[in-house]
Automatic annotation (TrEMBL):
Location(s) in or outside the cell: Peroxisome
Residue intervals passing through the bilayer: 204-228
Name of the molecule in the record: 3-hydroxyacyl-CoA dehydrogenase
Lineage: Eukaryota, Viridiplantae, Streptophyta, Embryophyta, Tracheophyta
Domain 3-hydroxyacyl-CoA dehydrogenase NAD binding: 203-286, 287-336
Pfam families (alphabetical): 3HCDH (PF00725), 3HCDH_N (PF02737), ECH_1 (PF00378)
Domain 3-hydroxyacyl-CoA dehydrogenase C-terminal: 339-424
PROSITE patterns: 3HCDH (PS00067)
Family the entry assigns: In the central section; belongs to the 3-hydroxyacyl-CoA dehydrogenase family.
Length: 518
């Protein structure tokens, strides 16, 4: 068996550098004996107290021609010059060269070097960042030894410093907070800590096949639950079944589901007009015992609000939490109030944006700033998609329950009066100043920066979140953070900033802003 040839020698210089030399003419290739010799000399150097640094070189002015593939058979020896195998391991995957080289020189050049074994000159290697310096041959070893001693003597903990800076950044803290907050949603005092185990839910009924009901049914059958879909007549029932089918077909088109899986999944839903088939179901949505508040589209959005009433049993809550997790939702348990937790917390979001419009700001400017901040879309585009009649109806609910905190905007009633209902009802909604569509705006004698707009829109949300916590609607503050991210698309990286600013806003900025506007 041809194992190759070659040897490795080591000399410890007076300055404490262990100079390891490869000798395997003609190009000092990395044969098996050379690799074993490198390992042996490296281990020896690491054990010697007089060694401060290690430098590897090659005899006769040649570092190494690369891995000796002749040791794997009788194939012709091929290798790259300058011995970069040892430092970046270009030839074999075991030396990680195919992974490291693209990071150094870029994908295009790396592919050229890896696939064609095309040599490059030292000047080009320096420009690419593959080598750090070019020195005369006579000075090469001494220069390398000086560099090695410099590294050993003046160690710069760049990785540790960079990691410390990264781990203490607002971005990292926000991501860490959300990571643990999501897991803490499964801990509900008086529910998950009393030894109650979830019952096995085998079949679920969904009452109503509209946009939300069909989305809920889709989420259930995607997780393997047989579903009974109840509607009031054949037309509505067929429309609901068609929505479910369209939801699944969308996954097929995107390559997320095979046709066979589609057929199997759609067979899990049964449409009915009566309640006769409900006798063997384990859970009904909508049910009056506990609220299961999904977010649209229900088969996509990851949040599930579980709304408990005064007498909801822990068993029912934990059953629904279990189902929520099985259909790939993150459940949070909340109390019952107008809007529950998420919509209640965010109702000032749209209202603050409407106030800015009445103060003379541009709709598109507000949406651009909010989107740039990290939200999936601005408040006006969202209202346009949902439908302005929904926004008006929702606003009336909050006006009834929180009259002292509801801003009565002129814009939405005007849009309704002008029959601009939003994209949900096909009619395109545009607010164009040149057409004079909305003349009720005033112009303040000062301008708003992007930061001002963000604070005006989101700080009232923080304020309302504090009320939600104070009233016991939410179990813990971190639940509201998860609800904001998963239910409203609040940017994860901004979560800690939201928490840090809340006290400042409530104690200082809110009264100041009120006086300014007054």
């Amino acid at each position: 068996e041809n194992m190759g040839k070659g040897k490795v020698d080591m000399e410890v210089r007076a300055d404490g550098v262990a100079l390891i030399t490869i000798t395997n003419p003609p190009v000092n290739s990395l044969s098996i004996p050379v690799l074993l010799g490198l390992k042996e000399k490296y281990e020896e150097a690491m054990q010697r107290p007089d060694v401060k640094a290690i430098v590897v070189t090659g005899a006769s002015g040649k570092f190494s021609g690369g891995f000796d593939i002749g040791t794997l058979g009788n194939a012709k020896l091929e290798g790259l010059p300058n011995g970069v195998d040892i430092s970046v391991g270009i030839i074999t995957q075991s030396l990680e060269g195919t992974q490291r080289l693209p990071r150094l020189v870029g994908l295009s050049k790396a592919l050229e070097m890896i696939l064609l074994s095309k040599p490059i000159k030292s000047e080009e290697a320096s420009e690419l960042g593959l080598v750090d310096a070019i020195v005369p041959p006579a000075e090469l070893v001494n220069t390398a030894c000086c560099w090695a001693l410099d590294i050993a003597e003046f160690r710069r903990p760049w990785e540790a410093s960079a990691f410390e800076e990264l781990i203490n950044s607002d971005t990292a803290q926000a991501l860490i907070h959300i990571f643990f907050a999501q897991r803490s949603t499964s801990k509900v005092p008086g529910v998950t800590d009393i030894g109650v185990k979830p019952r096995k839910i085998q079949k679920v009924a969904v009452v109503g096949g509209g946009l939300m009901g069909s989305g809920i049914a889709t989420a259930l059958i995607l997780s393997g639950y047989p579903v009974i879909l109840k509607e009031v007549n054949d037309q509505f029932l067929q429309a609901g079944l068609d929505r479910i089918k369209a939801n699944l077909q969308s996954r097929v088109k995107k390559g997320k589901m095979s046709q066979g899986k589609f057929e199997k999944t759609i067979s899990l839903v049964q449409g009915v007009l009566g309640y006769e088939n409900f006798r063997d179901v384990d859970m009904v949505i909508e049910d009056r015992i506990v609220g299961a508040h999904f977010f649209s589209p229900a088969h996509v959005m990851p949040l599930l609000e579980i709304v408990r009433a005064e007498k909801t049993s822990p068993q029912v809550i934990i059953d629904l939490m279990d189902v929520g997790k099985k259909i790939k939702k993150t459940p949070i348990v909340v109390g019952n109030c107008t809007g529950f937790a998420v919509n209640r917390m965010f109702f000032p979001y749209t209202q603050s944006a409407l106030l800015l419009i009445d103060l003379g700001l541009d709709v598109y400017q507000i949406d651009r700033v909010i989107t740039k901040f990290g939200m999936p879309m601005g408040p006006f585009r969202l209202a346009d998609l949902v439908g302005f009649e929904v926004a008006v109806a929702t606003g009336m609910q909050y006006l009834e329950h929180f009259p002292e905190r509801v801003y009565k905007s002129l814009l939405l009633p005007f849009m309704m009066e002008d029959k601009r209902f939003g994209k949900k009802l096909v009619t395109c909604t545009r607010i164009t100043p040149e057409k004079g569509i909305f003349f009720g705006m005033s112009k303040l004698p000062f301008s708003f920066t992007d930061k001002d707009i963000i604070e005006m829109v989101f700080f009232p949300v923080v304020n309302e979140a504090c009320r939600v916590l104070d009233e016991g609607i939410a179990v813990q503050a971190s639940d509201l953070d998860i609800a904001s991210v998963m239910g409203m698309g609040f940017p994860t990286l901004q979560v800690t900033q939201k928490s840090q600013c809340s006290l400042i806003f409530i104690c200082i900025l809110l009264p100041t802003l009120w006086l300014l506007l007054a």
